Amino acid sequence: MFDLRSDTVTQPTAAMRAAMAAAPVGDDVFGDDPSINALQERVAALAGKEAALLASSGTQTNLLALLSHCQRGEEYLVGQEYHTYRYEAGGAAVLGGIVPQPFEVSTDGTLDLAAVAKRIKPDDPHFPITRLLALENTHTGKVIPQSYMEQARQLVDQHGLKLHLDGARVFNAAVATGLSLSELSAPFDSVSICFSKGLGTPIGSVLVGDKAFIKRAHRWRKMLGGGMRQAGIVAAAMHHALDHHVARLAEDHDNAAKLAAGLSQLPQLQVEPAQTNMVYINYASAAVAKQVSEHLRKQDIVVGTAQRLRLVTHLGIPATAIDGIVAAFKEALAQLS
Question: Are the CB atoms for 129 and 97 separated by under 8 Å?
């Protein structure tokens, strides 16, 4: 079965499972897990930051960042379609009393920094205190130019704000651009890095920043129930991913480009260009999307049912499958005409 709904559906490889089984472990709440300690030091160094903290998910590392940067009654600036605002259950507002100030996201995944600047609140008791700008890279598979990130850094410096990156797929951005994780992370005070997407681990994200920031995040993690015990098995999977699954992301990007090229030959579909491992297609109607999904399921190809549909290539989608997937789409659409 080929599941194109997300890169979160990947299964750990046999080699990753073996690494997990062999991991030396300890009680991480006491700071005694050697695999976790080594992972945190390794990721901090790769990102060019002082410290790092392992958490269970990207949602949790993003939440830890927001809670550590902002106090109750303070606000963060964010895109309407960014995960920290739309897809993470409003955790910052519910658990931290943090006010979001959302903005429309441009087609390239950026925010209009001039509009952002206008919404930074003055020092007035009527308003929440603006503390943070939160960005994404990648966003819907699009790589955000590093020059834009540097402009965002200049903006926050002018106003005394902090800058956070939801880097759930930042390794995809690194492979696509040729920039290192350290270079991509340089403009940011904190970065959330997810390992359970393109890197193929079953669980785990890492938050990086300076030592004082990570100390605050560590306290929040404990308060949120995120302290784990012998979780070195998770860290071992992440070590393995760093060793074996980063460079291979280029294969996912190539497969997405091939998939986009093949689907663009079908007149019933509008296909958006693929930059990394995501292909967005647009159907004529939601009814067509549902019918195609049902047909593909019978061919052991799993996709969603949205009219604007995301197809994601990953460890579980080999290059040899792409032609067959395109053929299955063609057959499904032909049955509807």
Answer: no
One-character DSSP codes across 33-72 = -HHHHHHHHHHHHHHT-SEEEEES-HHHHHHHHHHHH--T
The C-alpha atoms of residue 112 and residue 44 are separated, in whole angstroms, by 30
Strands 308-312 vs 278-282: parallel, antiparallel or unpaired: antiparallel
Cα-based angle 89, 273, 301 (whole degrees, multiple of 5): 70
> Can you give 6-22 as a three-state secondary structure string?
CHHHCCCCHHHHHHHHC
Q: With bands split at pLDDT 50, 70 and 90, how would you rate the model's confidence at 337?
A: low
pLDDT tens per residue, range 181-196: 999 999 999 999 999 9
Helix (H) or strand (E) holding 131, with range, is: strand 129-136
Six token digits for residue 55: 């958490």
What does the alpha-carbon distance between residue 312 and residue 303 come to, in Å, rounded to a whole number?
9
User: DSSP state, 224?
Assistant: T
User: What pLDDT digit, counting tens, does each position of 74-104 carry?
Assistant: 999 999 999 999 999 999 999 999 999 999 9
Indicate if the alpha-carbon torsion angle 94, 98, 101, 105 is positive or negative: negative
User: 3-class DSSP state for residue 190?
Assistant: strand
Q: Please name the helix (run of DSSP H) or strand (run of DSSP E) that holds residue 133, with its range, or none.
A: strand 129-136
E strand or H helix at 7, and its extent? none
Kindly tell me the sign of the dihedral angle through the C-alpha atoms of 311, 312, 316, 317: positive
Residue 202 is given by DSSP the state: S
